[in-house]
């Protein structure tokens, strides 16, 4: 039986590949043909895929290969390392090959397996939505602290998730605060369709209401907590993003304009006007995710929109600016 580390010393397999240009709507990358020996077992297949993914520059080739194999077999990653000698059927080899080829073209693993782990939940994702990031868990964590504080005060919290995308934030809040009602807004019909799948998956349909529309416009009542993970990548930086982001994830969820803060500034401007203020309960808190280099600028924007409010920049576990908190 293989140990985890021994997968790197197994005998090389009989592999073939060719490359031709592939247009993806955002640029051109290679289209690979890659085959496994039909006698491959789990360990040798994962090793071969790891080598190929490493050659094309995948960030975590062994992890990617193991996750894809686990997905094909319907098991977890630990099982893959526990049973490397398990033979593979022809249909399993074919499915694994197809997934690895797509990963060789930098398609994100989350899209290949159909979900991404986020705040203890497996969030359904596809190319209509941004893949939830670990740094966004800080946004949820801090917002939940305040939501729970409101519950302790006897308040039934009303929460807005602006630009919900996959619904990851809305579902995480609802799943961890059953007293909360969450309004989740988005411009994209496709994103709302994915969010609906996650709401159904976690049984929070009584708590989360999906609302099509821009920013706070669809909100039906004032909220105690407003959360927004809006696009904050600068337009000039989009071309330099890793191909798995640039070529696959939706530009609508990435492009924050020339300085990266255009949509956040739009939201703050909207909330600063009387119609926007009417969407907030007295003493409402606003949590905005920002880029790691946007702390000072975003703080100034928030303070300008809410001159009488307390504005703070919260740092993530890497000691980088990540969330702007406005206590109105």
Please, could you describe this protein's structure?
The chain folds into 2 domains: 4-106, Orthogonal Bundle (Helicase, Ruva Protein, domain 3); 115-327, Rossmann fold. The chain has 12 helices and 11 strands. The protein has helices at residues 42-55, 61-73, 77-82, 90-104, 109-113, 136-152, 168-176, 189-201, 243-246, 262-272, 274-277, 295-305; strands at residues 17-23, 28-34, 115-118, 121-124, 158-162, 181-186, 208-212, 223-228, 280-289, 310-315, 321-327. The longest helix is centred in the middle third of the chain and has 17 residues, at 136-152. The N and C termini lie far apart (60 Å). The model is unreliable at 1-29 (pLDDT under 50).
CATH topology of the largest domain: Rossmann fold
Radius of gyration: 22 Å
Order of helices and strands: EEHHHHHEEHEHEHEEHHHEHEE
Number of helices: 12
CATH homologous superfamily designation of the largest domain: Vaccinia Virus protein VP39
Q: Would you tell me the structural class of the helices and strands? A: alpha/beta
CATH class type of the largest domain: Alpha Beta
Share of helix, binned: 25-40%
User: Termini, distance in Å?
Assistant: 60 Å
Task: Produce the secondary structure layout.
Elements: E1 17-23, E2 28-34, H1 42-55, H2 61-73, H3 77-82, H4 90-104, H5 109-113, E3 115-118, E4 121-124, H6 136-152, E5 158-162, H7 168-176, E6 181-186, H8 189-201, E7 208-212, E8 223-228, H9 243-246, H10 262-272, H11 274-277, E9 280-289, H12 295-305, E10 310-315, E11 321-327
Parallel strand pairs: 5-6, 5-8, 6-7, 8-9
Antiparallel strand pairs: 1-2, 3-4, 9-11, 10-11
């Amino acid at each position: 039986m293989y140990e985890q580390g021994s997968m790197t010393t197994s005998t090389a397999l009989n592999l073939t590949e060719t490359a031709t240009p592939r247009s993806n709507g955002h640029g051109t990358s290679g289209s690979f043909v890659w085959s496994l020996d039909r006698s491959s077992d789990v360990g040798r297949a994962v090793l071969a895929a790891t080598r190929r993914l490493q050659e094309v520059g995948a960030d975590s080739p062994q992890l990617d290969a193991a996750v894809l194999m686990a997905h094909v077999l319907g098991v977890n990653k630990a099982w893959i390392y526990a049973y490397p000698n398990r033979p593979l059927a022809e249909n399993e080899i074919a499915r694994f090959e197809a997934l690895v080829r797509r990963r060789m073209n930098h398609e994100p693993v989350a899209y290949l397996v159909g979900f991404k782990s986020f705040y203890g939940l497996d969030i359904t994702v596809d190319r209509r939505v941004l893949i939830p990031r670990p740094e966004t868990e800080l946004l949820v964590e801090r917002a939940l602290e305040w939501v729970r504080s409101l519950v302790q005060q006897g308040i039934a919290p009303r929460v807005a998730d602006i630009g919900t995308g996959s619904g990851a934030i809305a579902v995480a809040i609802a799943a961890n605060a059953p007293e909360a009602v969450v309004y989740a807004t988005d411009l994209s019909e496709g994103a709302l369709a994915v969010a609906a799948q996650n709401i159904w998956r976690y049984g929070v349909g009584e708590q989360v209401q999906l609302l099509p529309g821009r920013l706070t416009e669809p909100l039906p009542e004032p909220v105690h907590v407003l959360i927004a993970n809006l696009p904050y990548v600068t337009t000039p930086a989009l071309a330099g993003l890793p191909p798995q982001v640039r070529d696959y994830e939706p530009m609508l969820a990435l492009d924050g304009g020339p300085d990266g803060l255009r949509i956040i500034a739009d939201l703050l401007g909207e909330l600063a006007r009387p119609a926007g203020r009417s969407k907030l309960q007295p003493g409402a808190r606003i949590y905005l995710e920002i880029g790691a280099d946007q702390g000072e600028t975003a703080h100034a924007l928030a303070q300008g929109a809410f001159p009488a409010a307390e504005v703070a920049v919260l740092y993530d576990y890497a000691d980088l600016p990540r969330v702007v908190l406005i206590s109105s």
